[in-house]
From TrEMBL:
This is Transporter. It is a multi-pass membrane protein. The chain crosses the membrane at residues 43-68, 89-116, 149-167, 179-199, 219-241, 262-281, 301-334, 346-371, 391-408, 428-449. Pfam families: SNF. It is found in: Membrane. Belongs to the sodium:neurotransmitter symporter (SNF) (TC 2.A.22) family. GO terms for cellular component: membrane. GO terms for molecular function: symporter activity. It comes from Formimonas warabiya. InterPro entries: Na/ntran_symport, SNS_sf, YocR/YhdH-like. Keywords: Membrane, Symport, Transmembrane, Transmembrane helix, Transport. Its main location: membrane.
């Protein structure tokens, strides 16, 4: 048993832990989803609820996941066995695997768009782009059917190649080097966007809180986004926690990851909304928002096209590292619990994602082949997104918080979080434990009950 434990890979240093975790958190969620959901749901008020969700739900759930992962050094299903929990708790792991698939179906599609936009930028397709042509350009890129499918396939092949390289060689190396560069490039976008005529209206939209915009559904969407953003509620952070070093500070890491992640989302918002208002576009334009605005940000400035290529290149890196952490959930499960080789598990999962992902890609735009076919009142693309973000991840988070807050003994929790007594932060651990035990689950339950109309707050 020890030999098996020793052979499991770990991240090599604390910094690598931070970057790998951030690599999972940062992704299309910040650059694509956060801006478009903020735009659709009224700007500042949505942002306000989102930040509350990160603080009182996101960070505590992340601590719980790291606890489960590092304590057991197991995948999201095996971990509950190792903790000798009632077998029913394994549902968290299975739901997580299901969420990972649902997210990957549409995430790989959008990542394909990002790769495609990088390619188009290299060809110089955006040289004379205008606010009007940006929309048509987006439509012609994503309606397909062939081109977006081929790009989705390219994305999945890239993910498979990195994953077969293994935890250290693959994930660590890519995230450590490229994330800081992405950060700098978004800052460049911000500076450009803020100096556009009429930029202040965009900033006002992002930060002005109008509580009248808050409906139960908007609150649920903000909660779902918080889970999606921080890769929570589905075992990714359990799996990553299982590769953590023994001396990692498991409260400081979630706080740092959440803060950096939220900052990148805000910076992406600051790049996009001033542009939207400056070019008189529609903030609620939906999933195409990023693709219509960013080429405009860089149009008509010196070196604009090079910056545009760099932007989509780095976004594709961020999307790829996030996807690696998504696919890692089923891969770790199949490799560790089902005795399939790691390579076999990667290939099988990527193949499956491509196969069903076709449904997402062909329904992502209303003019696409399956764009008007409703399944439970939504397109496949929206259904995969809604079911995972707004239902499965928050339910997974609720179960995880209930498990750690009410099944795990407090002494064990304190022992693991203080790295077996080497960190003296009893007060902080008590506070986090209190949040996990009472505040987080109650908030989650309230948001759910409210959104299905049982409560009416
Ligand atoms: N957090 C990632 C993003 O924002 C997406 C993700 C969700 C990754 C869930 C892993 C697990 O893009």
């Amino acid at each position: 048993m020890w030999a098996k434990k020793e052979s499991r890979e770990k991240f090599s240093t604390g910094l690598a832990v931070f970057f790998a975790t951030l690599g999972s958190a940062l992704g299309l969620g910040n650059i694509w989803k956060f801006p478009y959901l903020t735009g659709e749901n009224g700007g500042g008020a949505f942002l306000f609820v989102y930040v509350i969700c990160i603080l009182f739900v996101g960070i505590p759930v992340m601590v719980c996941e790291f606890y489960i992962g590092r304590k057991t050094r197991k995948n999201a299903v095996g971990a509950f066995e190792k903790l000798k929990a009632h077998p029913a708790w394994k549902i968290i792991g299975f739901m997580g695997i299901l969420s990972a698939y649902l997210i990957m179906f549409f995430y790989s599609c959008v990542a394909g768009w990002v790769y495609l936009y990088m390619f188009k930028a290299v060809k110089g397709d955006f040289a004379s782009i205008t606010a009007r042509s940006a929309e048509a350009e987006f439509g012609s890129a994503v309606i397909g059917p062939w081109s977006p499918l081929i790009w989705q396939l390219i994305v999945l092949v890239a993910v498979a190649v990195i994953l077969i390289g293994g935890v250290k060689k693959g994930i660590e190396r890519v995230t450590k080097t490229l994330l800081p560069v992405l950060f700098i490039l978004i800052l460049v976008c911000d500076i450009r966007a803020l100096t556009l005529p009429g930029a202040s209206q965009g900033v006002q939209f992002l930060f002005h809180v109008d509580f009248a915009r808050l409906t139960p559904e908007v609150i649920l969407t903000a909660l779902g986004l918080a889970f999606f953003k921080l890769s929570l509620g589905m075992g990714t952070m359990i799996t990553y926690g299982s590769y953590f070093t023994d001396d990692n500070n498991m409260i400081a890491t979630p706080v740092k990851v959440a803060a950096s992640d939220t900052m990148v989302s805000l910076l992406a918002g600051i790049a996009i909304f001033p542009t939207v208002f400056s070019f008189q576009m529609e903030p609620g334009a939906g999933p195409g928002l990023l693709f219509m605005t960013i080429p405009l940000v860089f149009s008509q400035i010196p070196l604009g096209n090079i910056l545009l290529v760099a932007f989509f290149f780095l976004t594709s890196i961020a999307a790829t590292t996030a996807m690696i952490s998504l696919v890692e959930v089923p891969v770790a499960y199949f490799a560790e619990e089902r005795g399939i080789s790691r390579t076999g598990a990667v290939i099988f999962n990527c193949f499956l994602i491509m196969l069903i992902g076709i449904l997402a890609t062909l329904s992502a735009h209303k003019a696409a082949l399956l764009g008007k076919i409703p399944v439970f009142g939504k397109t496949f693309f929206d259904l995969f997104d809604y079911t995972s973000s707004n239902i499965l991840l928050p339910v997974g988070g609720l179960l995880i918080a209930l498990f750690v807050g009410h099944v795990v003994r407090k002494e064990e929790f304190r022992d693991e979080l203080s790295n077996h007594g080497t960190l003296s932060m009893d007060g902080l651990i008590n506070f986090v434990y209190f949040l996990i035990r009472w505040v987080t689950p109650v908030l989650l339950a309230l948001v759910f009950l409210n959104s299905i109309g049982v409560l009416n707050i």
